[in-house]
Design a protein that fits this description.
about 15% strand, about 210 residues, alpha+beta, two-stranded antiparallel sheet, two-stranded antiparallel ribbon, elongated, single chain, 6 helices
Length: about 210
């Protein structure tokens, strides 16, 4: 049976058994708009429609999550470390990227891509039986932070402990355990690990004096 949508006026076919004497809608969208509440966004002023169950007149209502975040107090505006665009986020959070896409792009280039210092084209090196123990000693010696910029686990993008960098690469040693001497190990954040990978003419002491 043909009926007219009470929201948009479109004529559509519906079974007689489900026709409503009061209201009929041709789609879910029309149903939500026809039975919803029209409100003004408390941040940008645009008008929107919410279903009655989602609308609360005793609290703020927004167009979307972006408007909600921007309207919060104590917001911080900064530039995205990947694309350079400015974005706003709550002061209680430590954000570095404006979107998940930018964060994923950063990871692909720095953390897990071919620029990562542990990226190996043809083989994987065995670090030796003493690696785990001496890696932890190196982190403890360097106060569990990057010796160049001072970033800790909480301040790195991947939320992990600083990397332990071999100044002289393992591949240059006949026995990998010889590469794990503390004088050859230093704690670096992912960014500085990439920067100083391959620079074999620098010492741990010189790295600690960088203060970048």
């Amino acid at each position: 049976m043909d009926v007219e949508c009470d929201r948009c006026g479109k004529v559509f076919n519906r079974r007689p058994s489900v026709i409503n004497e009061k209201q009929n809608f041709c789609s879910r969208k029309c149903f939500q708009k026809g039975t919803g509440v029209t409100y003004t966004c408390d941040y940008c002023g645009n008008q929107n429609t919410k279903s009655e169950c989602r609308f609360n007149e005793n609290q703020k209502n927004y167009c979307n999550r972006e408007c909600m975040i921007k309207d919060r107090e104590n917001n911080v505006t900064k530039k995205c470390e990947q694309c350079g665009d400015e974005f706003t986020f709550p002061e209680s959070k430590s954000e570095k990227f404006c979107s998940r896409e930018c964060y994923s792009q950063y990871r692909s280039e720095v953390i897990v891509g071919e620029n990562h210092p542990q990226w190996l084209e043809e083989t994987r090196y065995y670090y030796g039986k003493n690696w785990e123990k001496l890696r932890e000693k190196a982190r403890k010696r360097d106060d569990y932070k990057c010796v160049v910029c001072g970033k800790t686990k909480e301040e790195t993008n991947d939320g992990k402990q600083p990397h332990i960098h071999h100044i002289q690469p393992i591949r240059t040693f006949e026995n990998p355990e010889q590469a794990n001497k503390l004088s050859n190990l230093v704690a670096l954040c992912p960014e500085h690990h990439v920067k100083y990978e391959g620079q074999t003419d620098i010492t741990v002491k010189e790295l600690k004096q960088k203060n970048e």
